[in-house]
Amino acid sequence: MVLIADSGSTKCDWQVYDKAGSTVIEKRTNGINPIIHSDDDIELVLKELKTDVPYEILKVEFYCAGGKNEESQQRLTRIFHQFFKQAEVRIEDDLGMAVKCTKGVPGVVCILGTGANSCFFDGTNIHKRLPDLGYQIMDLGSGNYFGRELLRSYAYGYMPPDLMGKFENRYKLNDKVILQELYNGENPSSYLASFARFMIENHEHRFFQSMIADGLEKVFDYVLGPYQFEIQRHPLYFIGSIAFHLQDFIKEKVKEHNCDETHFIGKPIAYLSLL
Question: What pTM did the predictor assign?
Fold first, then answer.
């Protein structure tokens, strides 16, 4: 049996395949990000997973943010071997899973989920031209970016009154809770990203339409900026929940940037199981 996982900081989708390549188990757990999660956090997720995977796993393919980091690869491999002792373990970053969605065709790939990432895939190799400096600096246009912008508008008081009331009723926040989650919480990036749902649900409001347009312009300017040459010549793939839910807005930006072919895939692992 082969175990494949596509993990963000918030959630992780798992699938187990038999020798014939058929899916025998699908499961979603909390996410695993080796940059921000402790060994105990990761082991807790794998314990939950193991209860629903009674088979002998001979191969593990785990794709996650931070998966290219050598220290993260060694650490995750060690922890996986505690639960799947006979398995060959392969750890890759989230782009490794995302480029599979191109089906081997060269293209520019942009991940917009809890975090953000981008690359050009030439059909064989991944070419990444931006550093990984964490959610505080990078991740423009991601869930945690929009969550931060929304929370900032609430804190400074420039969120429109009608949205302010709905937001307060929805989350019942106070300064102490916000500070605790941002500076002492287990996953500040996912905490920020949780507010993006409110923006998506109220995307027809002019305030959020402006916020979305501004954020997506930053995506094309900076997240995709290093790949402008390739964007004019190859398909553009948007991967992740934020990209999927904002695809109508992204399509408008795509027209402005003269991109001919664009694809939107919310869950790569589910998409790949259909191929």
Answer: 0.88
